[in-house]
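A quick aside before the break. I want you to see a complete sequence-to-structure record at least once, exactly as it would be stored in a machine-readable document. Don't worry about memorizing anything.
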Amino acid sequence: MDTIELFAGGGGLALGLHEAGFNPVAVVERDPDSCETLRENWHHGMGSDLHLFPRDVRYVDLTRWQDRVELVSGGPPCQPFSIGGKHQGYRDARDMFPHAVHVVRTIRPEAFIFENVRGLLRKSFAKYFGYVILQLQYPEIVRRDGQPWADHLATLEEHHTGGRENGLRYRVIFQKVNAGDFGVPQHRERVVIVGFRWDIQEPWSFPQATHSRDALRAAKWLTGTYWDEHHVPKAQRTTPTPEAQRMLANTETLPFTARWRTVRDALAGLPDPKAPEASRIPNHRFQPGARRYAGHTGSEMDSPAKTLKAGDHGVPGGENMLALPDGSLRYFTVRESARLQTFPDWYIFPSSWTESMRQIGNAVPVTLAKVVAASVANTLHEHHRRQARNQ
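That is the input. The structure line, written in tokens, reads:
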């Protein structure tokens, strides 16, 4: 099944979609450094030629793929809605949701997957987010030139409540998900929006979590298997927090889910970036200058990492730093950060540390993309099988 990828960035979503069975036939990304990363990795990862549009999605003509692509996907720029950003929402020129809707209207895919920051669900954006969802449900009801978005919202609401069943329509659902619940070694909450074209009759729901914090707590402080797996001496093992103690005291059976993955899990097998052998590992170079101050403490080794971030607002929580057990701090290398986003080790980021960290911080974790996309793919396959049986 084919997909068109918008706002591709460094390629996390595209790679996850490919691993789930989709074939990206066209990729749109305007940032030159991100395009270089895509070119560097595409053939190795996808096994096919990269059909890249290295420009703004507003100026790309995709009509040749109308009714020929099963999925449209992408992560519209998150800065307008990011908790760490300037919170301008629809007033921000970087709000690309209207253009994502335009591509859906043009391509008419069987389904779409869009991802964005959890700040999109903030109360101050609630009305506009509802507007985004209605546009995705009825992409052919186009906003007129000069029409205020609130007036267009009223038109969409009237159509939605009017019971009309004509034109291009999608069943749309969204959910805030934590990537850590699906095996990503990072606490990363994101809003995922999934839509199926109206003729796709098969039911679908978001995948259930496969990993949990309770399972990690049990592996640390009930069975000890976490520490044993990593050969951590007893003197270096942490003690449970009061909250964890209460959870463990009330545990009668072990959790059925796998445990959350931690920074230690992600970094396993990588040498210290200052060690001589580190020079043989791509993107694993020590970056000096890390320091601690109030609220800027880095990620602990034996928990999922803090949410990796990117943007001109900086990283006020020290999300790009590792807090070592001896109390010292250092920056994550690009390779370590890529592992926290579940990029494979062969995936190369050819730009500077700063630029590579920006791409990684903006990326969709590969594993999360694969989990959601595989679930969508299964539903589309069932739809195609049902069509074949009825012919």
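Two observations worth writing down. The chain has two domains: 2-209+365-390, 211-354. The first helix runs from residue 12 to 19. We'll return to this after the break.
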